Amino acid sequence: MKHLHSGKVRDLYELPTGELLMVARDTISAYDYVLDTPIPDKGRILTQLSLWWFERLADLLPNHIVSADLPPDAPAEWAGRAVVVRRLDMVPVECVARGYLTGSGLKEYTKTGSVCGVALPAGLLDGSRLPEPIFTPTTKAAVGEHDEAMTFTQVEATVGDLAPRLRDLTVAVYRRGAEMARERGIIVADTKIELGLDPSGELVLGDEVLTPDSSRFWPADAWEPGHAQPSFDKQFVRDWLTSPESGWDQASGEAPPPLPDEIVEQTRARYVEAYERITARTFT
Ligand SMILES: N#Cc1c(N)ncnc1-c1cnn(Cc2cccc(F)c2)c1
Hints:
The protein is an alpha+beta fold. Helices cover 29% and strands 23% of the residues.
């Protein structure tokens, strides 16, 4: 099969049928680096979680999933982490919705009092819940570049009449995911979805959806506005990398060192826990 694209943690191939195969790797990224040490089963866990969400979002909009069965000419090791999807004409906007303020949104808010042109109440802190979830689109930056915030006017200039539908669908997907995850003790602070047009001009949900790679997952019981919230899945990795034990100096510009087995195991357990809590299924 033909290799089309490699992201930090996923690859995209074209099948002889013209459909695409989206393959999730066991890699994890932290501090803008793809770490050398894989997290066993991460690709399978997040693929299965995403498939579970696609089913629960099907009443909101159609999706690109064709099959979770491994195509005949794909390597057996991809089983459970490769999904056949139909080809879409992807919208050139990263569709992001935020229910909480942190990261680049907080940075913009601190400077301007708004995010992507949306004015927010004064006095919000890192991790504050927003009065309502907001659409905070960005450009699709080239590899190695950073996405740039877009105002709704810029989205309209880019996609025309699709703009309000991108906004409404992105916020609706976020609301559904955030509500269901919160009932299971996980805050989804924000999420990025990919939308594309099918040949009939219908907007279709692509990519992966509501995973810890496409969203910020926070443990609800640790939520406390005013400082950076602990990541549900990446905190063990972040804490070790920034501890003296790793010997890594982030300011050096050098790539992080390999992770100890203990950190790998704890991180794998967090992915399993997120999957099992949200889906109420046992990961096997
Ligand atoms: N999903 C989807 C999709 C589709 N259904 N049709 C056409 N293009 C795409 C598509 C193009 N880039 N990406 C991002 C991406 C995803 C997975 C792995 C990667 F390396 C990169 C998605």
